[in-house]
Amino acid sequence: MINSHTKLRYQRLPAQQSIRVFEAAARHLNFTLAAEELAMTQSGISKQIKALESFLNTSLFIRKGQKIYLTDMGRLFYDRCVEALDCLQHAVDEIQGQTGQLRLQAPPTFACRWLIPRMEQLHNSLPKLSLHIETTWLRSIHDHIQAETNQLVIHACINYPFNNLHAELLREESLFVMVSPSYMARHGDIDCAKDLVGKTLIHTRVDGHIHWEAWAKAMGEEALDTSKGYEFETLDMALSAAENGLGVLVCDLLFALNALRNGRLVIPFKMPIVTGLRYLLLRHLNSSYQPLQQNYRQWLQQQIHQDNQDMTAYLTELGFDNQDQRKGI
């Protein structure tokens, strides 16, 4: 049971409408402007103020000709009314999911290459949302995730076998081999999977060489030694290495789409899509932050849906007509 600060249970409070009228009149120091804001008549404003002054047994305004001023008690009451109305508005916004701080844990590449470029768009869509982003640098695909009630967690994994959090599928990776034109200019064209043998492979360190291993297995390319090559802490670093011509990378199309469109990377030959890791959105079901989380989840889903359309359009431009020939990780 929630304890009230008063035993009278708010029985001596004035009507809410009179509070709204007083706040507007005190803010404008003008009954006419207050009436226009609240869609009331000026006489209606005056009646509400008089009733409030009678209830409080004190004068709230000093009237001098055409101008009005707050009395000392009026100033005190105005300050308290603003605090109370702001608190109520904040509570309503939180319940309706329009405002508040939301903590988001996300893989560093997702934060750097996907979320940050969309922050202004997010602000325009949800202007009252305060998003605190935490990157999970050392998280592996097998981790048991812990989260606070005001946290959403974007977790990349093969599957999430634990039941401590609700898991919602956001998307699955679409893996392709990618390389810079400068690397092929120095080391020869790559026209098929066999041409990768002897090439420098690029990996991310936290999850080992899982993407190259999965891709080689899906292609049946047993001669490809996926144990060798450069290792980097994050996919973002691995992508930068590939863009700078250090080697060949297997990467999710989502994070490389801009680099592919501007020619820093290319997909060197046609290949089936290999489905990689799953990106899950993890959260507590019983949370007072559900409305706030729901608004952000809807925004995420809309953005990812648009991304899927963009990626499909790009693959169609390249002549990939076998998108249904997907091979799992």
TrEMBL record:
Name of the protein: LysR family transcriptional regulator
Domain named HTH lysR-type: residues: 17-71
GO MF terms, alphabetically ordered: DNA-binding transcription factor activity; sequence-specific DNA binding
Family classification: Belongs to the LysR transcriptional regulatory family.
Record GO biological process: DNA-templated transcription
UniProt superkingdom: Bacteria
Any Pfam family hit: LysR_substrate
Natural source organism: Photobacterium kishitanii
